[in-house]
């Protein structure tokens, strides 16, 4: 009986329902000399039957790591900090330039082409998912 109760408690824990998204095309733009900020992009797919809400991102290489979007405001493109980004069940969200992205602010080191850096996504159910991003320099990628 104790084993059955323990199994039920584990199954009911938040970790049992962790919202893991399928992440691909994870790339982090190398920061240009003199810039302390950069952005990360990815394709986020929710292959589950439950909606998932990303509520934060963290990185050890930046003082602040934030969810951002670009939106048109009249004739101006405005970047905004987002409190969360929803990924509906069975849907995909693209994190791209001039759209949703992860902003890394006040970098602690220079991001160099060919390196890898981890960013951890936090979900509203309390779970996290660490994603490895490939650092790219558009100037070198074209070579």
From TrEMBL:
The superkingdom of the source organism is: Bacteria
Going by the UniProt record, its keywords in alphabetical order are:
Signal
Q: Which residues form the signal peptide?
A: 1-18
Alphabetized Gene3D superfamilies for the sequence: PCu(A)C copper chaperone
* PANTHER family, per the entry: BLR7088 PROTEIN (PTHR36302), COPPER CHAPERONE PCU(A)C (PTHR36302:SF1)
Name under which the protein is recorded = Copper chaperone PCu(A)C
**Native source species:** Marinomonas vulgaris
Source taxonomy lineage?
A: Bacteria, Pseudomonadati, Pseudomonadota, Gammaproteobacteria, Oceanospirillales
């Amino acid at each position: 009986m104790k084993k059955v109760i323990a199994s039920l408690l584990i199954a009911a824990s938040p970790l049992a329902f962790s919202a893991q998204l399928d992440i691909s095309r994870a790339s982090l733009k190398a920061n240009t000399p003199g810039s302390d900020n950069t952005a990360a992009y990815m394709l986020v797919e929710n292959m589950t039957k439950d909606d998932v809400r990303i509520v934060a991102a963290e990185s050890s290489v930046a003082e602040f790591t934030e969810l951002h979007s670009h939106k048109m405001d009249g004739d101006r493109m405005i970047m905004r900090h987002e409190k969360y980004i929803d990924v509906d069940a069975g849907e995909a969200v693209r994190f791209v330039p001039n759209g949703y992205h992860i902003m890394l602010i006040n970098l602690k080191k220079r991001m160099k082409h060919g390196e890898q850096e981890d960013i951890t996504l936090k979900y509203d159910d309390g779970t996290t998912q660490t994603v490895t991003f490939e650092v790219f320099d558009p100037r070198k990628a074209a070579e």
